[in-house]
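Supplementary notes (optional reading)

For those who missed the lab, this is the record we used. Protein: Aldehyde dehydrogenase family protein. Length: 469 residues.
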Amino acid sequence: MREYPRLYIDGAWRAPAGQGMAEVIDPASELAIGRVPLGDEQDVERAVQAARRAFGTWSRTPSSVRAGFIQALAEQLKARAAEMAEVITAELGMPVQWCQSVQVDGPIDGLEQYVELAGLMDRVHQVGNSRVYREAVGVCAFINPWNYPLHQLIGKLAPALAAGCTVVVKPSQETPLHAFLLAEMIDAIGLPPGVFNLVSGPGAKVGEALARHPLVDMVSFTGSTGAGVRVAQAAAPTVKRVCLELGGKSPFLITPEADLAAAVRHGVQDVMINSGQTCTALTRMLLPAQRYAEAVEIAVAEARQLVMGDPRVPASFLGPMCSAGQRRTVREYIEVGKTEGARLVLGDEPVPERGFYVAPTLFTEVDNRMRIAQEEIFGPVLCLIPYRDEAQAIALANDSPFGLSSAVWAGSREHGLDLARQLRAGQCFVNAAAFNYRAPFGGYKQSGNGREWGEEGLGEFVEIKAVQV
């Protein structure tokens, strides 16, 4: 049991003003594994004031010094990577075979790039009689999700520190333990007081208070589109900058000449990693009609052989849903799919009696207008949709309110690149290309605005000043 009775504010662990503690539940055992404080508006006020006091000095600290703190944090994470992975597996339920590489090693890689990128803040651009400077945007509030908790926290924190911003972090109530562990590491490296502050608690209190606080200059939110709209509305009266990384319903376009078996197996695994709780999951597989039956057979066979079980067992490919509420939501969507007329070809297999599990689920005969094809389910549910020709495939891919991610598997790299440019999404993976932490990440349409990672991620935390001389 990990118990954190205090919040991290102004460089120290401090007793919360908010009353009570929230239990953190292991979704595999349904048992409590930790407790964190239920912070409130008074805690937010203390944290924001601390961040505001620290901003002036921190933003003027040489970029090389800020880079040194970023590197020191990366070293802390490397030294405690196994512990961090263990914590995330326990609070989220992602199997150990994925957790270290995806949830910890990847974010460390992403963090380290900002050791170098911090130096971009020193560049001055001369335009005629004007000097153009980059300056830190100010005090930033981070409202984080539960599905890739450290990944999203580092994706905000690293560029903010590089730019010279100070921050207040609100972790998800489902998975807060990793953030407290990270705060221990930040305390160990001696980051100046007030630069990093951690306030846990319910979104309705802590998240809303952060979004509307007049001394917060920027809020970065990752979560559902509906919650993102509420954050933007709360932030609007103070005209603060808002960066939103929201939902997705990503298409995977497989062309007729593609390696069908390799493409379909890749698509099934992509959806089932983290039990479908991935905003970029390729949950709409678009298949050439002439190869549709063959593709369905491959998909069912691939999904059947994926092991679901205890996330602490190395053989497990899928673990549980993060919470009982998320399991309920996914089950409701599966019933919606049946009612809409889609054909359930996989999904009735038994699951462990204890834990919030949902079996890998495949629907065929899916019309792209169905709710299961238009709304984000956030579970191990894949829709297989046939298309007649390439034009229809592109139209189906783009027929979505979301535009976070996409993928193409084509017979050649050139054809894949051509198709990728026609898809309305913030990123596209061609023929199973790997995720790149040095490339910008973010969405079109209702998938949000702004970018994370890379130089573009740094830009979210930068103000541009022109000085005429």
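If you only remember one thing from this example: The mean pLDDT is 97.
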